[in-house]
Design a protein that fits this description.
heterodimer; A: OB fold (Dihydrolipoamide Acetyltransferase, E2P); 5-stranded mixed β-sheet; 11 strands; globular; B: alpha+beta; Helix Hairpins; 2 domains
Amino acid sequence: MANIQLVVFEINGSEYGIDALAVNGILRSKKFKVQKIPGVPEVIEGMINLRGQVNYIYNLRTKFGLKEAAIEDESKFIMLNIGSRVVGCIVDEVTDIVRFDDAELEPAPNLSASHNMKYLKGIGKVEDRMIIILDPLELLSTDETLDLSPDLLRNC
Amino acid sequence: MKQHERQITTTNGLSLDNIKLTDVIDLEFLQRFQDDFAKGVGLASVTVDPEGRPVTNPSSYTRFCMDYTHSTECGDKRCAESHRKGGEEAARTGKPVVYECHAGLIDFAAPIMIEGKLIGTILGGQVLTASPNEEKYRRIAKEIGVDGDGYVETAKEIRILSKESIESAANVLFIVANNMSKSAYRQRKLKVVAEVLDDSLHQISATMEQLAASAGTVSNNQSSLNDEISNVNSVTGNINDVMDLIKEIADETRLLGLNAAIEAARAGEAGLGFGVVAQEIRKLSTDSKATVGKIKEFTNVIRSSVDRTVTMGNETALTVEQQAAAIQEVTASLEEITTMTEQLSMLANDM
């Protein structure tokens, strides 16, 4: 992961980063209506209609076990390319796009081999700031999302 | 202040320095009273001013005095001297004085005074308390150069009254004349005061009208001011709306910059230049947003200051209203006082 560009965003006051190559684009939440889908895992906030395509929106607060907060005007959806699909994550604000060298990166603390922690890819350091680098594939490919194939809709 | 002084001078116009007997006593009435009194009591009388000049015609003068004593220059002079002395004594004591004249008759002098100042004297008498002593009158006749026989004869015609009667008569004249002049003087004083009061009230009324008019002007100005300030408020609101729009554009631009940067990252080496542009765009949008924030701060300052101005303006308007109400009350009271003053003037004129 040498010399990568990260899209840096904020959730609940903490900074996270995700590889810009995995990002399809950033949307302003207030321009979309998130439609709830009954019965889906809690981590999926709902879906939006982006230029005629249905995209699922994940709530990373739920995912990270943070206290819930309503979607603000300033909230953004970071749209990620996951395989052939594009899914979104709700973040409080996208703050920057930063280029990182190897020296500024540190592997994720290997505290546990827990399945749930796989999405932590490393820590990026910019001066005093620490940016939690997330693995997009792991982030959205955990148990609750495995079934999130078009089959879900087919079953309806 | 000047007018006030002038009014005081007017009041002083009634000062005792220039008051005359004729100012306070109706001469026609005095003459009639004096004539009737003289006839009734049998005493001659005349009223003179402080300089001794008669202001009424003599009533019931005796032949002794008219035809003889006054007929020679010497007699006339001695009479005048006698009157002067009696008058002076009366003025000095402030009471009627009964005395014997140069020709031996009993006379009296009753001073007419207002607040201690002599304005005239009622002189009278020309009577005797006992039968005339022939020898004495012959001597006096010789002194003043008149016919002794005639003098004695007319002296015998003179009415004889007791001293008490003369004193009582002098007292009656004194009391009546003084009361008459006193009340007339007070009436005049009252009239002048009523006039001054009326004048002052008219001035106050005029001032009150001006005050009411200017209160109205202030009130109008204040409401115009409030309208203008409200305009400022709505314009400030409009500015804020525009600022919201600019902020929205800045947000959109920033997102555009972020998305452009992501595209540039995906383009790898080829996207480097585009990445720089994208970064500049983000920077610009951040600057715009910061500027919008500052402008909003200013407009908020304007707004709160406008709000305060409106509050103060409303307070002023309220105060002006209260003033107008107070002026109305004063004006109403003034009208009542004016009516009372008019009644006072009428009373003073009727007395």
